[in-house]
Amino acid sequence: MFDTHAHLYLDPLDKEAPAELIRRAAEQGVTKIINVGIDIATSQRSVELARQNEAIYAAVGIHPQEAETAYNDGHVFRELERLLSQEKVVALGEIGLDYYKSQTAPSVQKQVFEWQIRLALENDKPIIVHNREADADVYEILKYYKCKRAVFHCYGRDRDFTRKILDMGWLVSFTGNITFPKNKQGQEAAAFAPLDRIMLETDCPFMAPVPHRGKPSEPAYARLVAEKIAELKNTSVAEIEKATDRNARKFFALAEN
Ligand SMILES: [Zn+2]
Questions:
Q1: Cα 74 to averaged position of ligand 1 atoms, centre (Å)
Q2: 133-171: pLDDT as tens digits
């Protein structure tokens, strides 16, 4: 099983040896982890973690909350481009728009997002999308650039938007918040999205699923996300595992092993 979205460099996960997190994940059948950057320092760290641990792959990118710094510093983009060419870097992410939390003006966020999309396309890499209260703009930008390989992470939008995403060929990935009883929309999206378009993630250390809610999440909990999706889709965990493995390998262009 894949955890396609982890932040192992964030507190308190950074206090543990990655090998220990990998061991606990493997015990739950989670054998591959995509560690995702949010700025240059964490993208560098992701590349390093991937180099040191067989189970870990890296995504590098500038999160919309970090867009201002990137916008004002040309060096950021050059470094990102260099990182993208490193071994085991499988995607650009997480990138996108955040009109809820980010202090950065939408116009700046959009420029940083678009710059990174162009970089992904030039380098034939998929993108991991962060979208917070920016449905229309994210959709229009991805469509404008004819992005084919995009995944909407921590997914939980309404059915109309889900349909629009699926129509474009994009994927959605689900995290621990689909186990929260009040997250009906996220559960409905997980039930609705077809098996060949979904992936598993934890977004750890955030979004720990029930029964660990409120505590730090970790890659091992991707299994609990798989179990919830299986329940919502009325199928087996094995079926979810098979489908999400296949999707992740295809999306991130990883060979079977
Ligand atoms: Zn994230």
A1: 24
A2: 999 999 999 999 999 999 999 999 999 999 999 999 999
Per-position DSSP letters for the chain, written without gaps between them: -EEEEE-TTSTTGGGS-HHHHHHHHHHTT--EEEEE-SSHHHHHHHHHHHHH-TTEEEEE---GGGHHHHHT-HHHHHHHHHHHTSTTEEEEEEEEEESSS--S-HHHHHHHHHHHHHHHHHTT--EEEEEES-HHHHHHHHHHTT--SEEESS----HHHHHHHHHTT-EEEE-GGGGSTT-HHHHHHHHHS-GGGEEE---BTS-PPTTSTTSPP-GGGHHHHHHHHHHHHTS-HHHHHHHHHHHHHHHTT----
Q: What is the third-level CATH fold of 2-251? A: TIM Barrel (3.20.20)
Centre of ligand 1 to C-alpha 204, Å, is: 8
Q: Could you tell me the pTM of the whole model? A: 0.96
**Cα 177 to ligand 1 centre (Å):** 13
